[in-house]
Amino acid sequence: MPQPDTLSQTACAHCSFNALCRFSLSAEEMLHLEPLVSHQKTLKKGDFLYRAGSAFQSIYAIRAGFFKTDILLEDGRTQVTGFQMEGDILGLDGIAANLHSCNAVALENSEVCIIPYSGIERISQKIYSLQHQLNQVMSREIVEDRHTMLLLGTMRAEERLAAFLVNLSKRFSERGFSSCEFHLKMTREEIGSFLGLKLETVSRAFSRFQEEGWICVQNKHIKINNLKKLESIVQA
Amino acid sequence: MPQPDTLSQTACAHCSFNALCRFSLSAEEMLHLEPLVSHQKTLKKGDFLYRAGSAFQSIYAIRAGFFKTDILLEDGRTQVTGFQMEGDILGLDGIAANLHSCNAVALENSEVCIIPYSGIERISQKIYSLQHQLNQVMSREIVEDRHTMLLLGTMRAEERLAAFLVNLSKRFSERGFSSCEFHLKMTREEIGSFLGLKLETVSRAFSRFQEEGWICVQNKHIKINNLKKLESIVQA
DNA sequence: CGCCAACTTGATGGCTGTCAAGTCAGGTGG
DNA sequence: CCACCTGACTTGACAGCCATCAAGTTGGCG
Fold this sequence. Notes:
Chain A has 236 residues and is of the alpha+beta class. Chain A contains 9 helices and 11 strands. In chain A, the strands form 3 sheets. In chain A, strands 1-8-3-6 form a 4-stranded antiparallel β-sheet. In chain A, strands 2-7-4-5 form a 4-stranded antiparallel β-sheet. In chain A, strand 10 (215-218) and strand 11 form a beta hairpin. In chain A, helix 4 packs across helix 5 (128-154), helix 6 (157-174) packs across helix 9 (227-235) and helix 7 (188-195) packs across helix 8. At the A-B interface, strand 5, helix 5 and helix 7 of A face strand 5, helix 5 and helix 7 of B.
């Protein structure tokens, strides 16, 4: 099992599979699970956790750090499909074809738990809740992707950026970090790719939000002064 | 079990859960599954299969017909998140929160198999492959949504429509229908909503494709004369 | 200190949205 | 059977948002 150090505790407490690692399980169930999540991996900023087209074997639970996933078109265009932080699960896209369908890249030094997929399927036969939890995680991912489609299909630039900031704020908050002050791990270009905008447009929207006094931007450091206002922009 | 009429055979042969209904299972396994998929439902054009916010109990396998799923914003903006045809599964978005997160609407008279979710989880404990199949279906949905995000985030109007037509052609073909001639069940507005475009833009793109001789459009009837060309537009 | 990537800001243009008018198809009722 | 009506669609003119191109600034890192 992971050593109960500070790092793993903060990470696991909010992990989508926390029931799997340390909570809600009997001693006997724990015995089944031990070998499943005992392996971990550390990545440096810029490292690939996996690449599109590579063989799928495991899914990953982020213990610490920050990732992006993206897909490429032949002509070089890319789409960032999501940003993942501690507690999030990576790699579920690989189940469909036994191949990873996107790249997963660490945006800062990170640490993940490696969870062999075959092990999950096997143990799910014994531990009912694990299967349900996996289904929920995947379903949640579908719901979130649909929301991103709504953003890309119907919103304008400033609405998209506001939605992005509100979403980040909420996720940081859920993990015990400040909801109004945080560091962006990604570049303007990566934000733009995720939001279907060019980096210049992202930069201009940041500037406008700052002019209005809703946020303070200093490079990658963000301070949100008026979260309500940002939320109202999204709904507008 | 469903009566082995022509309708159900054509539908089930391509169903994502065909292994569940009639193939690859022992007689004993079949006994477990019988009660699961024995209920069906017919819908008329315009009927809701389920609505966003309603309680989640079952997923649905389309036996015949055509559906759209969409989500709404408070201000009335909507995003069509997908079109589903026979063999496709509807309702997986509801697992996350035990509530459906989108609307599912029949675009023509349709028929679905009702598959209670609790039953799936229960039987998955006995039939290993069912769980894996469900995971694959959900993973495939994630991969497809990511592809739609790529479309919405990086492609221009004509590229989007070309990708849409190529995708439809492929899916009709997989189901034994013509890959180059078919009827659109949805309106221009619904196509536009799915592609993040206005209906006028969709109409103009259709007209241009026809001027170029790549397709013939007559109302909702589509004939593809040059599929290769459409495919090349997507990649361009 | 110097270099380079990341970022900001300005000017311009183009794609697509918006508004508007007209056409077409399908269904209803006389 | 036909007039009518409504929703869906097409086409044109124009405008606005964002992409593109360009130049300059900042910050991080060797």
